[in-house]
Amino acid sequence: MTRLYFVLCLVCSCSVSGQSPTFGLMGLKLNLKPQFNGSKQLDEILWKHNGNKVVEFDGIKQQEFGLFENRVTLDWISAELSITGLTLDDSGVYEVEVYTDKVLKRQTLNLEVLEKLAKPNIKCETSNDGEEATLTCSVESRQPQYLMYEWIYHGTGQRLTVPLSDKSKEYTCIVRNRLSNATATVTAKTCYPDEGVSALTISLIVAVVLLGAVIAVVVGIIYCKRYNKGLKNETTHNEEGTSLLHRTLTVPSDQRLGGELLYNNNTTSDLERSDTQNIELCKHEILVRD
Ligand SMILES: *[C@@H]1O[C@H](CO)[C@@H](O)[C@H](O)[C@H]1NC(C)=O
Ligand SMILES: *[C@@H]1O[C@H](CO)[C@@H](O)[C@H](O)[C@H]1NC(C)=O
User: Fold this and answer.
1) In ligand 1, which atom is closest to the CA atom of 37?
2) Structural contact between residues 175 and 182, judged by C-beta atoms closer than 8 angstroms
3) Which of 131, 133, 141, 172 is nearest to 155 (CA)?
4) ∠ CA 190-196-202 to the nearest 5 degrees?
5) Where in the numbering of this chain does the Ig-like domain appear (predicted)?
6) Residue 92 contacts residue 78 (beta carbons within 8 Å)
7) Tell me, what DSSP letter sits at residue 54?
8) Residue 153 — left, alpha, or beta (φ > 0 → left; ψ -120 to 50 → alpha)?
9) Beta pairing partners, 94
10) CA 52 to ligand 1 centroid distance, Å
């Protein structure tokens, strides 16, 4: 019942406006061609868009109006109107009147300018059991009434239910109006944004840990070198001091062996008492190098 009413209504509106619309694509050029069967220059032509003058020819020259200035060309024989740089606002009812051989003829044409479609977005929602997902294709549009969605090899419609067993299988959505189309392709992987994020997080953590380890090693080496340098200075200084002391002490006491033993004991115990194992390693290194 509603369907019949709808069809009747469509028929009515078509007969009212005279003709099914001509479609033009935004930004492009379009010709509106009335059927006057003329073979010679017309006496007068007037084109109107939604009641406003577009272009007028008085038999000698033509005048363009409003937003149509510099965008229209008019054929003075056929009355064909050509419009460039189509905008959505150019849609509507065009009426043309021609006057020739003292006869006025009138025709009406409908123009519908369609937008160029942008790349669609595909959204994925997984089912509760995680075995299926619903892909929804959509595109930003000011003319949703003209859009047709299709999943290539899977039929028409905005939604598509897919199994998640094969995550690398590709699904392509194509969105169309009468004059343009755009596609987007996804795999079931897009249904798992979390996995991608966690993989990224893990690799980031690994990178940070590695970087930390490298920094620790570099700092350790620098510290060790610095310490060695300091130790070297300190020991040479000590050696000078102790040898002087040793001489002054040993010469009068006349106990060379005991003095040497004392000297050795002093130096080793001083170092050992104040230092950790790490520093022992450093000391070892300096001994090997020396
Ligand atoms: C134009 O000519 C065709 C035949 O060539 C004719 O059928 C049609 O009625 C004519 N249209 C007008 C508006 O004179
Ligand atoms: C998409 O539009 C282009 C023109 O822009 C056309 O050549 C192509 O055949 C269309 N593709 C489909 C699948 O409709």
Assistant:
1) 1
2) yes
3) 172
4) 175
5) 120-187
6) no
7) E
8) left
9) 49, 109
10) 28
Name residue, tokens 């084109």: 47
Mean pLDDT confidence for 218-234: 74
Beta bridge partner(s), residue 121: 138
**Three-class secondary structure of residue 65 per DSSP:** coil
Q: Give the number of other Cβ atoms within 10 Å of residue 8's Cβ.
A: 10
C-beta 172 within 6 A of ligand 2: no
Q: Which helix (H) or strand (E) holds 77?
A: none
Amino acid at 192: Y
**Separation CA 42–CA 107 (nearest Å):** 15
The 10s digit of each residue's pLDDT in 10-25 is 443 433 445 689 999 9
Q: Return d(Cα 283, Cα 109) in angstroms, integer.
A: 99
Place of tokens 């406003």: 52
Q: How far is CA 182 from CA 26, 92, 128, 151, in A?
A: 15, 25, 31, 12
User: How far is Cα 244 from Cα 260, in angstroms, rounded to an integer?
Assistant: 12
Residue 187: strand, helix, or coil: strand
The model's pLDDT over 41-83, given as tens digits with 9 standing for 90+, comes to 999 999 999 999 999 999 999 999 999 999 999 999 999 999 9
H or E element in which residue 62 lies: strand 62-64
Q: What is the CB neighbour count within 10 angstroms for residue 102? A: 6
DSSP 56: E
- Cα angle 112, 113, 119 (rounded to 5 degrees) comes to 130
